[in-house]
Amino acid sequence: MLSVVTDEGSTQSGSLIDEIVREGARRMLAAALEAEVNQYISELTAETDERGRRLVVRNGHHRPRTVVTAAGPVEVRAPRVNDRRVDDATGERKRFSSKILAPWCRKSPKISEVLPLLYLHGLSSGDFVPALEQFLGSTAGLSPATVTRLTQQWQADHAAFMDRDLSEVDYVYVWADGIHLNVRLEEARACVLVLVGVRADGSKELVAMKDGYRESGESWADLLRDLARRGMRAPVLAVGDGALGFWKALAEVFPETRHQRCWVHKTANVLDAMPKSAQPGAKKAIQNIYNAEDRDHAVQAIKTFAQLYGAKFPKAVKKITEDEAELLAFYAFPAEHWIHLRTTNPIESTFATVRLRTKVTRGAGSRTAALAMVFKLVESAQARWRAVNAPHLVALVRAGARFERGRLIERPGVIAA
Length: 417
Hints:
By secondary structure, the protein is α+β, with helices and mostly antiparallel strands. Helices cover 41% and strands 16% of the residues. Helix 2 (109-120) packs antiparallel against helix 14, helix 4 packs across helix 14 (367-382) and helix 7 (263-272) packs antiparallel against helix 10. The radius of gyration is 28 Å and the shape is elongated.
């Protein structure tokens, strides 16, 4: 198709480069869909009826539809398949379903990530059309009504997630934090309470996310009670900031769970109690504690820290010595897991991409919608989370295996002669 190009290299639908990219995307998508259908049919050529006619054949194309991608809107005519096979179990006709382009798909997942982010920045559904027009080159499929329907669907997804059955899921480790995102929450002090867990297979997963108050024990208790009601087992170890009301709630709901304080938060709190001139040296001394080769060396590093800074900065030293047991709890677990267990980084690193620097928006949108948008962003990020190191050891932790100096004690009842 020929297009009129201006002196600036633009066309009626945008820049010439954008048009070339969209045309390339259209052709690649069309080729991929054709290849997928051809493979499906070729694998079933042996399927014939009593007359020897093939049960699975091509049947032209579906009606054209526009799919919004990161390259812009692309018109697609998906090939159609006539599959006359019958499912023995249900008695219904079998159907071909493309894994590349689902029947309901009207936009790529990347665009679905952009929409909640824009909403959280304060755009109303009516603002999406002009905001996305330059990015996409078109507003096809992104009317205010479409965005409103997506918002409602995401709210339903979040509600279903927070009401799912947890009796078949086992979270051996959990990280807890209260994240201030400055999104459309009703009060400035409100935050998003987040729990991320490690399943017995070593994979990380979002456990829960709701609004509340970071320092409020009752907010955390409500969340933990709800998780217990839905069948969640007590984690073996929980990791979080010492300032959270989470610890009081955890002791109430899951008293058998061990506590591990986050070293990143603790380091920041200790350094805040010291003058800037002393902070570089103190930071290295703190790192010597949580990077020690085992718990015994870490205890000695705490004593060294107290000797170096106790006389001048007793309040700073006390922040570590009074929480020694909770700060060193991770040493009782596999050494491969230490790097994961001594901080709440799995939560912080995820929310670093979600955290917004906008002012609190009042009256433009609902708290429920904002939480649903954050949930969709985290859900998207979760697909990129990697499992903990040595994932096979997580199940052993749940089984009660003992670890000394980070190594598994296979026969703890046997004493060497």
